[in-house]
Amino acid sequence: MSLSYFAATTRAEAASAYQVLMDTARLADEAGLEALWLPERHFADFGAPYPNPSVVGAALATATRRIGIRAGSVVLPLHHPARVAEEWAVVDQLSRGRVGVSFASGWHGADFVLSRFPVAERKQVMLAGIDQVRALWRGETRIFPDALGAEIEVRTMPQPVQPELPIWLTSGGSAATFELAGSMGAGVLTHLLGQPPEELARNIEVYRKARQGPGRGHITLMLHTHVLDGSRACAERAHAELARYLGASMSLVATDVANARGAAAFGSMTGDDRSTLARQSAARFADLGLICTPAELPERLAAVASWDVDEVACLIDFGFDHESILRSLDDLLTTLA
């Protein structure tokens, strides 16, 4: 069990989001959870506190003692591979070897103002970049052009604590990405937004069959999480917060460069259409995720285990206030103990 973060905030709410992050990270560290997953998001309220997971990861490295600090994800086409290796090596040093990174090719059109490459090349750029980051992490040199166009040999500093960088690929439900991750010896970071549970289970089977390297690999599933007190009011509030949160994400879907047809469909929706879809999606995720009472948690987790998932990353900051999130996390940790 891990925690993941993806707050949808305005500028005025950013400080509160960071307070939630730091307080829940300390609790998760003390409770012995697996990891903290930090996203990368640009130019929108959805995910606004997290433009660079390595920056936030550095803060968490000094505030925790044992819990893993992971990027979920680094959108690699937006960054130079040498910079990624340098930044995360710093976090690995600060955390004494607790770093992991999930890489993504990106899908939000506006993000690519930060990229040096055409958006159509993002997958190839990601794969080439992963190889470069892994090599630099090991202390090897790689050739890059300098400001005058001359090719020079580069070795990044500082060197990390871990000899190999633990990596994942982020997938929204593509079987090809699951298969690729397995063949690379990487894990998969995924969610249920673009795949129902039965499809996820099939994708995981594809991943296991393609797996290269020791063991069966590692599948991490992000699930919206909030422990309810059993009252109708609490359940209704959770559904409302989740619907608002999902509604905020739809402004990004309209610029999805990975799914032009879906982006066009979202772009043509009315406000009422989007509100209806957000409510329907909230009901679905509430049923499939960990938005439930403590008594219901074991059954929900057993269902997730039946899909052959290795790790649940509990997305906890989808709208509730600081006090409610801490109370929910305390109930979750008590139930898991």
Give descriptors for this structure.
TIM Barrel, 11 strands, eight-stranded parallel beta barrel, 11 helices, 337 residues, alpha/beta, 16% strand, two-stranded antiparallel ribbon
Query: What is the overall number of helices?
Result: 11
Radius of gyration: 20 Å
**Which strand-content bin applies to the residues?**
15-25%
What is the CATH level 1 assignment? Alpha Beta
CATH architecture: Alpha-Beta Barrel
Order of helices and strands: EHEHEHEHEEEHEHEHHHEHEH
The neighbouring-strand order within the major sheet is 1-2-3-4-7-8-9-11
> How far apart are the termini?
12 Å
Number of domains: 1
The quaternary organization reads as: single chain
CATH topology value: TIM Barrel
What report would you give on this structure?
The protein is α/β, with parallel strands linked by helices and 337 residues long. Helix content is 47%, strand content 16%. It has an eight-stranded parallel barrel, surrounded by seven helices. The protein has a two-stranded antiparallel sheet with strand order 5-6. Helix 2 (53-63) links the parallel strand 2 (35-38) and strand 3 (68-75). The radius of gyration is 20 Å and the shape is globular. The mean pLDDT is 93.
